[in-house]
Each structure stands twice: as C-alpha cells, then as structure tokens.
Amino acid sequence: MIELRSLSKTFRQGNQQVWVLRHLDLTIRAGEFVSIVGPSGSGKSTLLHILGLLDEPTSGEYVLDGVPVHTLSERERTALHREKIGFVFQAYHLLDDLTVYENLETPLLYQKVPTAERRSRVADMLDRFGMVAKKDLFPSQLSGGQQQLVGVARALIVNPRVILADEPTGNLHSGQGEEVMEAFRELNERDGVTIVQVTHSDKAAEYGSRVVELLDGHVVRDTAATPA
Questions:
Q1: Minimal CA–CA distance to 102: which of 169, 154, 155, 50?
Q2: Is domain 31-56+74-224 classified as CATH 3.40.50.300?
Q3: How confident is the model over 7-34, as pLDDT tens digits?
Q4: Burial class of residue 199 in the structure, from the number of CB atoms within 10 Å of its CB (0-12 exposed, 13-18 middle, 19+ buried)
Q5: What confidence score (pLDDT) does residue 191 get?
Q6: Do the Cβ atoms of 92 and 168 come closer than 8 Å?
Q7: To pair with 52 at 20 to 30 A between CA atoms, which of 31, 45, 46, 182?
C-alpha cells in the first residue's frame, strides 16, 4: 500500500543543512492502522504531509498503491490525492461559511460526482455518523468532537484507500477524543480502510494495530500496539 525507500527531507538554515527525515524506510500494508509517535521535532507531521502529497521529500522514493509518487507531476499528484487519500486535520479545516451538508458535499464537487450520487453519499455519511439533525448547522454551532467527526466523514466520503490523520484528538477533551478514535477503529475493522495517524497521545496510539516511533527523522521503534 505504502512504501518509502530512503526517504529524506532537508531544508537550509543559513549555511547549515537541517535534516527533518533521514533515509527513512517504511512499509505500510493495506488495511493496517498505524500510529506514528515521537517527540516534537522528530519528523512526524512532515512524514504525514509527504504521505498525503501535501509536501515533497528532498530525496528517496514513495510508492502509494503501486504508483511511484516521486515520478509524478504536480497535476498527477493532485489527482492521486483526490482519488486515494482522505486527510483529517487537528484544526478540523471545515469551511466556516458552509453547513455540515455542504462541507461533506464539497470534495465530491471537486471530483465531479453526479448530483444524485452526491446526495446519496452525503446522506449515508450523515446517517452513519449520527449527524442527520445537524446537516444544516454551521461548524461554529458544533462542539469540537462533532466538528472532528464531520472532518472524518468528509475524508471518508471520497472512498479513499487511506486516511491520514494529523493529531486528530489534539483539540478535544477525552470523551470527544474517544468518540473520534472509535470511529477510526470502526472504519479500519469494518471497512478495511488503511489509517495512519500522527499523535502525541499514548491512549490514541493504542487504537492502532502498530506503533511506529520516530526520533530525529529515524524510525527507532516499530511494534504491534497494545489494544486500547
């Protein structure tokens, strides 16, 4: 599903070259739920953004579902992102001037999904996440947990092969965080969606089937998770 070979990310700071990721090798199989952990500055979010095609490595190879990402043009990368990847952000990134329904519909408009199918998919997501009664509300009228569930539903509505989540419970209290992580677990176990999350939370990390720890841009631990 995901193969990284000698992946590196650097930037210049004055006359110095700073390494964010250093010759990193990682394979994630289809259907896995992987938690990426490590201290601040270890390269976690940079790695996730590269996986999500929101950033590019300085060197190395990235293969996503058999496609060599490192050889693609920017247009091809954008198309691949829309086709294969759902991204869930810590800060939700919902569109404030759109309702819940419209936030869910927007990715389908980008994909030029026909009207009848858009309505069907949005209705399915609203029902699945218990948001039918909230479909006409704006993000500001929702709790943090509800906003994040809309973010998860929005990521899922495009039928992605993989969901990438950047600190998905970082802005939530414990109860809201558990609700979001249970939604991820159901997506993984019931639907077989591959999930890769970056988290500082040990409890959230345990929802994954595998924990990958980064330190200074290296993988220093790669083990099965203790079930939450």
A1: 154
A2: yes
A3: 999 998 888 899 999 999 999 999 999 9
A4: buried
A5: 86
A6: no
A7: 182
